[in-house]
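Quick note —
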Amino acid sequence: MPSSKNTAASALGVLTRRIISLPKDGGRRLIAVAGAPASGKSFLARQLAEAVNGAGHTARTIPMDGFHLDNRLLDARGLRPRKGAPETFDGEGFVALVNRMKRGGEVVYPLFDRTRDLAVAGAAVIEANCDVAIIEGNYLLFGEEPWSALAPLWDLSVWLETPETVLRDRCVQRWLDHNHTLEAARARAEGNDLANARRIASTRLPADVTLSD
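Predicted structure written out below.
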C-alpha cells in the first residue's frame, strides 16, 4: 500500500501538470484552493506555487484573508465574536479583486497581519508577468452571494475534504499557539471555526478536484 507521503506527492504532481496544461485565454489562470478553517489550504497553495514555478511558469499564492473587515467595523456591527464568518469579510471587494486578477496585469492587494489582527492595504502585488494565481480561502466555493460569483472565474478549483475531528484538533492547537488557554481555545474552535466549517459545507459548490485528508 502506498504511503500517505507518496500519495500526497502524487496528487501534487497531478495537480501541477493539470495547472500548467490549462489553456490561456489572454488573461491569467486562476486556481482556487478552498476548504474549511485549518484544512491545509495555505500549505497546499504554497506547494502548488513552488511546483508550478519549478516547471518553468510563474505562480503566486494569494490569500483571501486580506479582506477581513476591521475590528472597529465588526464591533459596530456586533460581529467581532464571529470574525471569520462570511459576513465579516468584504466579499464584494474580494470578488472585484479576483475579476481584476483574471484579466491579467499587475494587481496590488491587501494582506492580513495575524500578529496585529488587522488587514493591511496595498501589502502585496501580483506581477503582470505572473500567469498563474493560486488563491486560497474558506469561501472560494461558497454558495451564498456575493461569493457564488467567484465560481465561473476559476480555471481549476480544488476542495480539501477534512474530517471535523481533525479540524477541531487543528483549530484548538492554532488558538493555543496564539496564547489562548485550553478552555478558550476550545471555545473559539467550537463556537466560531467549526460553525463556519459547517456553514461552508452546507452550501459548498462543486469543485473540479476534491482531496481528502
